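PROTEIN DESIGN WORKSHEET
SECTION A - STRUCTURE
LENGTH: 393
TOKENS:
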């Protein structure tokens, strides 16, 4: 197979939301009013911790596509003050988040057991709380997300190739920092992690044969398979990878911002930061070159995400192994693009209506497992007043 990134077209219906005159869509989508509408129109399940599972109406895939967010829109009215990373979540919410993730991923693995037929991914994304509300490319809901997506391999095979220089595949050009100029020190920094459940994966185990992505990123294999998703020690190690990434990101962009070689006061692994990162001449040089570019180029400076923003993926490789990886999250790019899948969303109500019943029924099916686990309560909407889909009109 000739690996290449793919571009898929995903239909969506007309969105029945009127944005008030004088507001940009992004400004409205971050308002409590929109979050209330999202739950009432597309909500599937809510926990006492306000973890909300919902149908992605403008989604990535028509096979299986849902998200879980920490909906703090009624608790925290300031969109810039909401949790955007898992390390900002309260302990109980994090535990329920992990269990919901395990249940949904387990369902996907049972429903789509053959990696030669389906690409399965669970992607957790942070949203930078310092990003201006009206900046193009800001995700529409400023709270931490977990995405659960399935793509049929046949659809990817038939999709047209994506431009490898697509701004979304390249993190708006920023991945050249981590994956090209800093690949060696980036990988070395992660090698210092003491993990028992997650084992370092070989490069050919990390990348999908159909797309050739992810590229240049560290990966870890869950050798004991899906049963470990219900093990608290797996989630401890999963978070250690995130904390390591946050240290790399914070140290690098602090150096870009201030020019000072210092260990961030909030560093989780201060000795590794000092010895590996600040001890690397290449790390220092790349940060200072970027600092000069920020000073000279206003457009580039406006695209920098100064606070840690990440995408952490759990997905099936070609062998059916569960792989964990992590990357920075820049403006405009989506969770699927880490796997080399560019999604073009097109409004096509007729096409969406044809796939909607099967898609929604799969979401209602996995919702039953969350109900059985006694994690929260189902949400009735006009589209599924009970536990079945009702066509509109």
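SECTION B - SEQUENCE
RESIDUE ASSIGNMENT:
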């Amino acid at each position: 197979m000739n690996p290449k990134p793919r571009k898929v077209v995903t239909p969506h219906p007309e969105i029945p939301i009127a944005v008030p005159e004088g507001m940009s869509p992004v400004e409205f989508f971050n308002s409590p009013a929109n979050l209330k509408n999202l739950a009432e129109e597309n909500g599937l399940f809510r926990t006492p911790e306000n973890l909300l599972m919902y149908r992605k109406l403008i989604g990535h895939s028509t096979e299986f596509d849902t998200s879980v967010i920490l909906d703090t829109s009624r608790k925290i009215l300031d969109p810039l003050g909401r949790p955007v990373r898992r390390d900002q979540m309260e302990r109980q919410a994090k535990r329920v988040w992990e269990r919901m993730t395990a249940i949904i991923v387990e369902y996907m693995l049972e429903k789509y057991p053959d990696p030669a037929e389906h690409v399965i991914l669970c992607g957790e994304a942070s949203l930078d709380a310092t990003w201006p509300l009206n900046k193009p490319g800001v995700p529409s809901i400023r709270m931490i997300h977990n995405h659960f997506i399935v793509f049929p391999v046949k659809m990817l095979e038939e999709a047209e190739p994506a431009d490898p220089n697509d701004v979304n595949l390249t993190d708006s050009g920023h991945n050249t920092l981590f994956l090209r100029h800093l690949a060696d020190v980036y990988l070395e920094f992660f090698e210092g992690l003491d993990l028992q459940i997650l084992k370092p994966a070989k490069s050919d185990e990390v990348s999908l044969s159909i797309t050739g992505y992810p590229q240049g990123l560290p990966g870890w294999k869950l050798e004991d398979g899906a049963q470990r998703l219900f093990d608290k020690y797996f989630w401890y190690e999963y978070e250690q990878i995130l904390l390591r990434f946050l240290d790399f990101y914070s140290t690098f962009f602090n150096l870009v911002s201030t020019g000072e070689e210092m260990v961030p006061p909030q560093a989780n692994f201060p000795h590794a930061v000092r010895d590996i990162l600040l001890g690397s001449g290449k790390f220092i040089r790349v940060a200072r070159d970027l600092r000069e570019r920020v000073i000279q180029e206003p457009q580039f400076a406006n695209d920098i995400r100064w606070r840690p923003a990440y995408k952490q993926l759990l997905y099936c490789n070609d062998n059916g192994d569960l792989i964990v990886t992590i990357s920075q999250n820049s403006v405009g790019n989506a969770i699927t693009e880490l796997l080399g899948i560019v999604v073009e969303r097109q409004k096509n109500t007729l096409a969406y209506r044809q796939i909607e019943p099967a898609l929604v029924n799969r979401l209602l099916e996995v919702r039953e497992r969350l109900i059985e686990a006694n994690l929260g309560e189902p949400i009735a909407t006009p589209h599924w007043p009970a536990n079945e889909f009702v066509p509109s009109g």
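SECTION C - NOTES
The mean pLDDT is 87.
The CA atoms of residues 6 and 156 lie 6 Å apart.
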